């Protein structure tokens, strides 16, 4: 695994996990549930193609997509049924003019009035008014559905990216524990020989045996954790475990974290934030519906008590909406600042521990040379490698946490 902290500093790879990194798919042979060897294309999962894989395979994303299609279908159906908002506004305006300019007349011969014609116009007016309010609602419902879809996708992708990095941690934990269990078993065997030969006390021999058994049990736990993490990740991606190859050699340029301009990103976040947009849309929808009431109000209703009551309720609701908007902006800024602080703290953590790890790697190389010339035993070299790999795994865990914090920061900057 590789870390770039600057253009000239590269983290050495000390975790020996084979990874294929050339294409997005490869042809491989695997064993199916019946024990039959099967040749098929396998999907290569990398941090930067998780979104692409999920859009194609994830069942959850397919449901989100269907929900969006339902909202779109609903909007387009009523668009065909009622007409566009502008068409309805024209119809409402025309009908209003007919009502406002209508003259009630009485036929001298029959004594009948043309009031039924007025009633028809008023009924038509109410129909257009209802349809226009409904179309405005469908318009914003569809707009919200599109935002919800993107938000659900972003959340699902981020979760999968997080679980992908966590899976790599469980994988390295298992591999390191394999080395430790092997070393502890070696020590237990040496202790047994020493005890049998009379050079070691029984309690020391028992202690070594207990340590070796504990290491084996821990290895079982880590193996189970790795299996569960892989299954969970594959379920999120929507892919068959047997048809997946995981890319584990992650190379990311962390210099972009150091060059973040928080104030500029804050402006972008406030412009994109989906919660803020949701409140703004609520305000816009209320304003649009209120405009219909005011712009197309019939003359007979202009001074009614019901109209005054409606205006008062509208004003209170708009005041609440403006409060909600202010709170949404404050909460978004506070969350974004918190994520920025987390990111910078994580970045400083790996940056400060980087030089120490590089020095430790250099010392291990010296020990390798000593071993080659017979000045250091194989056991001591194995112990040194185990220590180095353990420290490297800790560093990689912190590095993955840092990159995850960066992914979250970027996601929040984009509004989600």
Secondary-structure blueprint of this entry?
Blueprint: E1 2-6, E2 9-10, E3 25-31, E4 37-45, H1 50-57, H2 59-82, H3 85-100, H4 115-196, H5 202-237, E5 244-246, E6 251-253, H6 255-258, H7 262-272, H8 274-295, H9 305-372, H10 378-413
Parallel strand pairs: 1-6, 4-5
Antiparallel strand pairs: 1-2, 3-4
Structural commentary:
The structure is a single chain. The protein has 416 residues and is mostly helical. The chain has 2 domains: 18-29 and 39-104 and 113-186 and 225-248; 256-416, no CATH class. 74% of the residues lie in helices and 7% in strands. It is built from 10 helices and 6 strands, in the order ββββαααααββααααα. The strands form 2 sheets. Strands 2-1-6 form a 3-stranded mixed beta sheet. A 3-stranded mixed beta sheet has the order 3-4-5, with no helix packed on it. Helix 2 runs antiparallel to helix 4 (115-196), helix 7 (262-272) crosses helix 9 and helix 9 runs antiparallel to helix 10. The two termini are 29 Å apart.
